[in-house]
């Protein structure tokens, strides 16, 4: 397909804010999309491969600036100047390439989607010497062949910010409309297929057949990450019992990070809940699973927690958070910050998917196949009870053991990948902590000049990908890298490449970096777009394992405020 057709679609989608209109436009496009153009589904979602694939575009603003400069014949300074004025490198590319094309009278583009995908896919493959130069050539080649509007979307694709207001759910609804007349059941089945496969092109191909029964072919595949099932929150145990029924399973809610374990053909792979492969980071986990879990093939859901190697006391998540991203000196850090794996669910065992099986059966199986080995790998601490007193006691014990609280689980329900379900509930003390995303910052002065030193926090709005500001934070961050927790250096390294606009000392940041924040209170505030402000916020840790869709939503904030009032 000509890339101009896709650019036209992007324009049409970006020109309306109405979700139903977007679905109408996209469903028409999908209806006529041929099978051989299936990879366009990845582009629509801002990707080049299925979501589970680790090869991402990962291009910096700086490289894009160079490419625009080369392709348009302007100096990099001119590009930066325009960027400061317009605030969107895509628009800068459109403007500067337009000027060039008009002067060369070369307005027609023959760029195809295949060529764009081909060049984009080469980017993550490059390694070693001359990588930057080679990447620059690949990007410049695309921009030179592009019309202005195509250049706009190529740049936005490179930077992972299409700005057309399309989410996975819009794609799902458009598939349902295009091939199943928007039938409600079909939309649910398509979502299930997306959650199981994390491959939109695959789901498109099956949808195109127009037969619901075809979706049976999408099963779990060991080795390919699937989205984790997420929990809802309740205020206390009584409320939990009401929601999940009696008796129910109650487990420790471990204060660690989620680790989803796959074993197939004697090979182990470990994924975070963001579907990132972290096998290399945790060689000891691989050893424990090989040694202490019986089975040819399986998918286990678990929480890894840290402990102090001397005292054997369990430590909070922030003490081990650095292990998730650390890719060097693994042997040393594994000695310093050891982990224990607590397995709490099983989705697949020896060739058979278990996700439709009741939780009771799944949890029993875990206890059969794991050789309990404390400080290495164990099944999660659990009681099955209908007794409030026993539950309260267990909750107290969990807190005493330095864990976050408890999870209450219905015994007869299925595992639902990717869903925040009402049959798995968390109960924890109202510690007043939230996961939020950084969407802006301010450069510091004096000792901190040149450093981003105060950060704007945002929660999720009513729609996915709408971010609403809820406060500004500069505390909790360490001056030195060696201190435990997040350091200014670390945050600056992560945030500077994500700057999308600068105005004086203020910068806007692409929402990507998630932090756990504690606070004292939430107050009404006209200063932030959410209408609320956190009082005395403090960053406690980075959450590189969490997905953007998991940050606190406005709805949750408003619920917290109600809770504040009633306390
Ligand atoms: P939250 O991160 O506050 O939304 O809480 C949900 C998370 O708790 C899950 O994503 C898991 O990573 C973690 N967790 C800890 N212990 C358990 C458990 N026993 N069962 C399920 N999830 C658990």
Fold blueprint:
Layout: H1 3-14, H2 19-32, H3 40-44, H4 61-72, H5 76-86, H6 89-104, H7 113-122, H8 131-145, H9 148-158, H10 168-180, H11 184-197, H12 200-208, E1 230-233, H13 237-244, E2 248-253, E3 257-264, E4 267-271, H14 283-292, E5 298-307, E6 314-315, H15 317-320, H16 322-325, H17 330-336, E7 339-349, E8 352-353, H18 359-369, E9 377-379, E10 382-385, H19 388-400, E11 405-409, E12 420-427, E13 433-443, E14 452-460, E15 467-473, H20 488-495, E16 499-503, E17 506-509, E18 514-518, E19 521-524, E20 532-535, E21 538-542, H21 554-566
Parallel strand pairs: 1-12, 7-9
Antiparallel strand pairs: 2-10, 2-11, 3-4, 3-5, 5-6, 5-7, 7-8, 11-12, 13-14, 13-17, 13-18, 14-15, 16-17, 18-21, 19-20
Helix pairs in contact: 1-2, 2-10, 4-5, 4-6, 4-8, 5-6, 6-9, 7-8, 10-11, 11-12
The proportion of residues forming helix, as a percent range, comes to 25-40%
What is the CATH superfamily label of the largest domain? DNA ligase/mRNA capping enzyme
Summed over residues and divided by their number, the pLDDT gives a mean of 93
**How many structural domains in the coordinates?**
3
* C-alpha-based Rg, rounded: 25 Å
**Kindly, what is the distance between the CA atoms of the first and last residues, rounded to a whole number of angstroms?**
60 Å
CATH topology heading of the largest domain? D-amino Acid Aminotransferase, Chain A, domain 1
Question: Into which percentage range does the β-strand content fall?
Answer: 15-25%
CATH class of the largest domain reads Alpha Beta
- Biggest beta-sheet profile: 7 strands, mixed
Low-confidence stretches: none
Strand runs, count: 21
Q: By helix and strand content, what is the structural category?
A: alpha+beta
List cofactors, ions and other ligands: adenosine monophosphate
Query: How many helical elements?
Result: 21
Shape: globular
> What is the CATH architecture annotation of the largest domain?
2-Layer Sandwich
């Amino acid at each position: 397909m000509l890339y101009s057709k896709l650019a036209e679609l992007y324009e049409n989608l970006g020109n309306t804010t109405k979700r139903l209109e977007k679905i109408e436009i996209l469903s028409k496009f999908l209806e006529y999309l041929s099978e051989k153009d299936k990879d366009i589904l990845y582009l629509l979602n801002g990707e080049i491969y299925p979501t589970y694939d680790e090869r991402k575009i990962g291009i910096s603003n700086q490289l894009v600036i160079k490419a625009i400069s080369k392709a348009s014949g302007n100096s990099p300074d001119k590009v930066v100047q325009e960027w400061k004025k317009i605030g969107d490198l895509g628009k800068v590319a459109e403007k500067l390439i337009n000027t060039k094309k008009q002067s060369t009278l070369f307005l027609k583009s023959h760029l195809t989607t295949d060529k764009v995908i081909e060049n984009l896919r080469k980017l993550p493959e490059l390694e070693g010497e001359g990588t930057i130069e080679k990447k620059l050539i690949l990007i410049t080649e695309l921009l030179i062949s592009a019309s202005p509007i195509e250049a706009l979307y190529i740049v936005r694709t490179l930077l992972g910010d299409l700005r057309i207001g399309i989410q996975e759910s819009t794609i799902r609804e458009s598939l349902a409309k295009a091939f199943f007349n928007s039938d409600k059941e079909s939309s649910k089945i398509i979502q299930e297929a997306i959650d199981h496969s994390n491959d939109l092109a695959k789901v498109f191909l099956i949808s195109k057949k127009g037969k619901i029964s075809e979706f049976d072919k999408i099963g779990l595949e060991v080795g390919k990450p699937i989205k984790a099932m997420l929990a809802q929150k309740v205020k206390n145990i009584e409320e939990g019992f009401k929601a999940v029924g009696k008796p129910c399973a109650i487990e420790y809610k471990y204060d660690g990070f989620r680790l989803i374990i796959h074993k197939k053909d004697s090979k182990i792979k470990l994924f975070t809940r963001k579907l990132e492969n972290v096998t290399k980071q945790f060689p000891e986990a691989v050893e424990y699973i090989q040694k202490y879990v019986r089975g040819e093939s399986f998918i286990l859901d678990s929480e890894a927690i840290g402990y102090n190697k001397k005292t054997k006391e369990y430590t909070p998540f922030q003490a081990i958070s650095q292990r998730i991203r650390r890719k060097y000196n693994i042997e040393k850090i594994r000695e310093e910050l050891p982990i224990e794996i607590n397995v709490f669910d099983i989705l697949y065992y020896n060739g058979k998917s278990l996700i439709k099986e009741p939780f009771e059966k799944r949890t029993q199986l875990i206890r059969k196949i794991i050789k309990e080995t404390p400080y290495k790998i164990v099944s999660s601490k659990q009681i099955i009870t209908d007794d409030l007193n026993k539950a309260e006691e267990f909750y107290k014990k969990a807190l005493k053991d330095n864990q976050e609280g408890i999870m209450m689980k219905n015994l007869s329900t299925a595992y639902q990948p990717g869903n925040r379900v009402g049959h798995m509930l968390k109960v924890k003390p109202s510690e007043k902590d939230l996961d939020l995303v950084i969407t802006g910052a301010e450069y510091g002065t004096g000792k901190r000049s040149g450093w981003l030193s105060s950060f704007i926090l945002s929660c999720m709005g009513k729609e996915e990908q709408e971010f609403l500001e809820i406060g500004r934070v500069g505390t909790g961050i360490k001056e030195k890298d060696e201190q435990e927790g997040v350091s200014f250096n670390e945050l600056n390294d992560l945030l500077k490449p994500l700057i999308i606009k600068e105005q004086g000392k203020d910068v806007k940041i692409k929402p990507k970096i998630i932090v756990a924040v504690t606070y004292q209170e939430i107050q009404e505030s006209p200063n932030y777009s959410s209408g609320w402000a956190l009082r005395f916020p403090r960053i406690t840790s980075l959450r590189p394992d969490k997905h953007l869709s998991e940050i606190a939503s406005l709805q949750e904030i408003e619920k917290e405020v109600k809770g504040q009032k009633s306390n």
